[in-house]
Specification:
Blueprint lengths: L1 E5 L4 H12 L3 E6 L15 E3 L5 H10 L2 E6 L6 H4 L3 H22 L3 E7 L22 H20 L2 E7 L1 E3 L14 H11 L4 E3 L11 E2 L1 E3 H16 L7 E4 L5 E2 H12 L6 E3 L8 E2 L4 H7 L7 H14 L2
Bound molecules: uridine-5'-diphosphate (UDP).
Amino acid sequence: MAWLVTGGAGYIGAHVVRAFASADIDTVVLDNLSSGHREFVPDGIPFVEASITDSVALARLFADYSIDGVVHLAGYKYAGESVSLPLVTYDQNVTGTARLLEAMANAGLSRIVFSSSAAVYGTPSVDVVTESTPTSPQSPYGETKLIGEWLMRDQGVATGLAHTSLRYFNVVGSGSDDVYDTSPHNLFPLIFEALVDGRTPKIFGNDYPTPDGTCVRDYVHVADIADAHVGAARALMAGTALEPVYNLGSGSGTSVGAIMSSVADVTGIRFDPEIHPRRPGDPSRIVADGQAASRDIGWAQRHTVESMVASAWSARQAHA
Ligand code: UDP
């Protein structure tokens, strides 16, 4: 028996596959390689190249492999870009998720861990977000992640599907040098691309109401995020009732300015970041309480911000 990891060739999914392997749980990967990389999937892991919107491919996969449960990460993942691509975002994240749930129901599969996001909160009015903080997504991406959570809940009521949704905060770092964040839109890769190209990293806004004027985020190490999926899968296999949603946050925030200083320390490259105007839609601060996930699925932030920067830089250099 194995767990299916949709989006298992992506930056986070590839770490989930490795975390399951470390826990002696077999996986099968489904990915359409739209943002994933075939080489991120370790040798020996069955790989199916198909979209989650492809009902025929899903039915064939569930017929070909004996699957215990599903970790569902596949989808359109660029929050900022989703504003100009709402239909693509809804197709991948809502239609795709509905097709996956339908194929699972047809195959008699009843466990799923869904990849959700801090984007469901939009701009929170509290210093530390908990699972009961009201949701208010501000992009098609955030909307579709929230709808995904509702699909889990509704399918749970309709069919008895055992489910939980993990709301990731700012996922960074690398668990091994062979997988790194290739996103062209996030802070860490943008800093590293600039340094590798001999350009100066940019800070989007230094006039926020934060201690150093730059945005504060809750950075979490991707290997810790991956381990939380193992904890959730094990709980579902044991028949433990889980909450419908968990925040995977550390409870403490780090400013963009502090990340820049850490990058300078880790890389040994001295630079004064260029200050640019605020990026539209960026909340000044978003930090989450991860205590419920610690209690129920063994979530823990085991890495420091410095080790997140160092591991991300090491993996980026390995791919230079
Ligand atoms: N950011 C920045 N310079 C960059 C990229 C991002 O100052 O080159 C800031 C961005 O404005 C935000 C933070 O870094 O305040 C984290 O951005 P990211 O896109 O990584 O994640 P988000 O929190 O937007 O999901």
